[in-house]
Design goal:
Class I SAM-dependent methyltransferase; 9 helices; single chain; methyltransferase activity; transferase
Length: about 270
């Protein structure tokens, strides 16, 4: 069945569990407006979404469910945690909502979701654990399913995430409150685990961040109109340099930069 979590032993380790209201708002907004995500949710026979590792409180899971209903009103969200006490707390806090909470890890509690969000989870694992965690989750996806593996700061002002499908990584997104940065490379500290150790000279992610900093400096004149306008000008400069930055489908309040995974995949 796709609808009920099983009781097999969760795969993974207990993480710190820090969370906060609206901490994942930028990734939520991106999910709601991403053509790839919208298509996957709307095409799914069962619009099941798993929020993996929601932490000590279920606030971001409840927010995710509320926001995804803008895409599909019958979306079902299940929050999974590896710590039994967190599941008990989540059920008590959520009360009579239609969001479920269950014990589970990378095996996704036997569920077959069309979308998995795993934020601030793999950052707490060794980098060697990432490929197997990705593979374990991917094997449980429904046809056409997607995974978002990301990291953000405590207030959600700086975020980075990888979008994956059953074949592996698809894209990297950098997102921020443009008022909260001095340079785009400030986001380097929030790169997903798979990339953070590759932010060194000679690696593509280092080159992208360097190019973004140079474009940000070149766009300084746009700063008189505000950092959001300056961010958009930076993105246009990067695109003119040949970086395949995805064009936003709407004017967003966030600074967002999405590139194909092939652009920044680590060199062996």
């Amino acid at each position: 069945m796709t609808g009920s979590p099983n009781t097999s032993r969760p795969v993974g380790a207990v993480t710190r569990g820090t969370t906060g209201y609206n901490r994942l708002r930028r990734s939520d907004r991106w999910l709601v407006h991403s053509p790839r995500v919208r298509t996957a949710l709307r095409a799914a026979a069962d619009p099941l979404v798993v929020d993996l590792g929601y932490g000590a409180l279920p606030v971001t899971t409840l927010e995710l469910a509320s926001r995804l209903r803008a895409v599909r009103t019958d979306v079902r969200v299940v929050g999974l945690e590896i710590h039994p006490e967190r599941v008990t707390t989540a059920r008590a806090v959520a009360g009579a909502t239609d969001v479920q909470f269950a014990l589970g890890g990378f095996e996704l509690a036997g569920l077959r979701p069309v979308l998995v969000r795993a934020f601030n989870v793999l950052r707490q694992y060794p980098v060697e654990a990432v490929p197997e965690a990705w593979a374990t989750m991917s094997r449980r996806l429904a046809p056409g399913g997607l995974i978002i593996d990301g990291t953000c700061d405590e207030l959600g002002r700086r975020c980075c995430w990888v979008l994956l499908d059953e074949g592996g990584p698809v894209s990297l997104t950098l997102a921020c409150d443009p008022f909260s940065i001095e340079h785009p490379s400030d986001l380097a500290e929030r790169l997903p685990k798979v990339l953070i150790h590759h932010n060194i000279e000679g690696q593509p992610i280092h080159a992208l961040l360097g190019a973004a900093d140079r474009a940000w400096a070149s766009a300084a004149g746009h700063g008189v109109f505000g950092p959001r306008v300056r961010w958009r000008a930076m993105v246009e400069l990067l695109r003119a340099e040949g970086y395949p930055v995805a064009a936003p489908r709407r004017r967003m309040r966030d600074g967002v930069l999405t590139v194909p995974w092939t652009t920044i995949a680590p060199l062996s």
